[in-house]
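re: ur question from yesterday

yeah so i grabbed the chain u mentioned. its 752 aa long if i counted rite. heres the sequnce exactly as i have it in my notes:
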Amino acid sequence: MRGFLFFAAALSAISLQVTPAFSQTRSNDEEKVEKLDSVVVSVSRAGASTPVTFTMLGKDALRKANPINSLPMVLNLQPSVVTYNEGGTGLGNSAMTVRGSKGSQINVTLNGITLNDSESQEVFWVNIPALTNLISSVQLQRGLGTSANGAGSFGASVNMSTASVTPDPFAAVELSGGSWKTFVESVAAGTGLTKSGLYFNGAFSKGNTDGYIRNAMVDSKSAFMVLGWMGERSSLRATYLMGDQKSGITWDGIELEQYHKDRRWNDAGKYTDENGVLRFYDNQTDNYTQHHVQLNYTQLFGEHVTWTTTLNYTNGRGYDEYYKSGKDLSDYGLVPMGSQYPESDLIYRKKMSNGYYVVSSDLRYRSDHLNLTGGVNLSTYDGNHFGEVLWAKALNEDFDYKAFNDRDGWYRNKSKKNDMTGFVKAEWTPVVGLTAYVDLQLRHLTLDMDGHDSDYYEMGFPIAYDNKWTFFNPRAGITYRWNDYSKAYASVAMGHREPGRSDIKENIKGDLSPIEPEKMLDFELGYEFSKPGLSLGANIYLMEYWDMLLETGKLSSSGYAIKENVPRSWRRGAELSAAWSPAAWVRFDANATLSVNQIKDFTSYVEVWDGEYGETHPVNYGKTTMLMSPSTIGMIQAAVTPWKMTASNSFKTTTLTVNGKWVGKQYLDSSERDEMKVPGYFVMNASLGHEFNVGKGVLGIAGYVNNLLSNLYYASGWRWEGYSKADDAIYYGIGVYPQPPINFMLKLSYRF
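ran it thru and got these structure tokens back, copy pasting raw so excuse formatting
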């Protein structure tokens, strides 16, 4: 392992972020697409001279990815990225961290419109399946990055684009199958840019799997359509994206003790019938459907000014369904408090519906020496949460559940969030090779919450709340390119982020002091060298946090873990990466991240089991490492196309790719105790692909082997703790998310 880390560090470069120049002989249609189509997403993206740390994935790389992988899994080999999947396949709930920053701290946009849920600030990737078949490019920015709409980037941002107008008609079909009855089918077609300027693209995908662990089934569908018109100086485009999924609940993971007995176990939906036989409820599932509709208009004024405006509406609705044993009916409002009803088995749903409305507009001026952009983004989010009881074993058969749910149900609450953002940014090149960058963002938010939460007690816990925040987020930096191969950049950025809905409501129920917004100062210093056959680079980052929200172990009056502001913490590290192609038929890529991710002074609050209700026991650990933040991450990959240079066309495209990913040890909480350690792990994957010219199209076949060495490991998890006064001791339990051993996928594709 030491050898791997040394080799990864020694190579040191960022190869994927080098953007190839357009050919001087490109067609008028290509120039038109660049000016009118790509401008939609370019506002939130970094350019070649922007002093921001980023990598790019193009359509070809996305097309060759494993068909079961959600976008986080596709990004797994990028610097400082760690991913895992709860169910053991790429379908289902996936999670990603970048430099240790979790999903709620990563800003995700599609065509410049944020996909982060306004309440939780998370992106639930299972709700947007098969994105890699629908998008044309992805830019992953590490650090605060450039100004983006929606939830504030607090460690990274992912900017995706579906904007891709091809000059010619096309059609494609993919059929894939693999381990654990996993199947993915997709079709796509497009007219290309017609003589009249009209174009249409459409795609549909369906994925199914039983999953590696029990109840990790997924049944997902996605649809994508674009109808657009492009003239000489203006364009109009309507985009529709739908994601629909039904998946087994897997987010509870598996207790570590059970993991060592049966790592495929999942007790979701477990109950015992009248005969004492262990059974599982077969509809313990997460169900969600989401529709995104976007309308974009772009206009060129002269040769230097471009105006673009996008309207977006997102509608989402769904529910989680549970079977729970031995529950007090009064906690669900089914009987009066203190009644004589026994505890009962229940089936219930936690439901939600939401609407997200966005207007985004920006004006850009571009010349040889100055790029100046200003814009506004206005959004409103309406979220509704409510609970329904479907059945209770102890109640009479004639109990009217519909009337109960229609009247008040178990709980109801709602929230409304308004976000108004304005920005102006400029890149100025006063002399050849030197670019100065300034990016100023002003963001104003309001949040109103009302209703009762699911912790039912005397008509529920009220979570009435309203607040306003105004954030000023400045960024500045310089880039210096002293020849065609080398450049260096430095930047400093300030970011703020409001607390999420769950942070707020659990804080209210815990009757604690109000939580404050998080603040971060991000310093980036980087160097890149790029020439044909070799790319090298290194980046040093200092991400300094104030009032960062972290789990401390305190509990609300309903028993939920509460996040509180940690006064001072930091993530500091160096990122090294490289790409080397000694011959046209072989390429090596590698990257490594070495970092420290610390809290200056951490105190954990442990629930007291034999004390007063809500009492906690404080434990101070001093300076510690943040939870789930590895200090070492590395990747190495080799891609070989052995017959690429031969005269015969039979095997010219045959490519073998082998890669390995190392993730160092992590901790399930911020105490840095050995018993909370997630051991480091190394995973190898391989793929073999070949393409044949068949008729007017290309037939492709590819095989994927995941976890080639069949290492048995877990990638993340959780812990509980309790303190006993009588024993003067802390007791704990651990849950983990097991990752699968060796598994396989086969993909057949045809496109023309």
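noticed a couple things. The chain has eight helices and 37 strands. also Confidence is low (pLDDT under 50) at residues 1-27.
anyway ttyl
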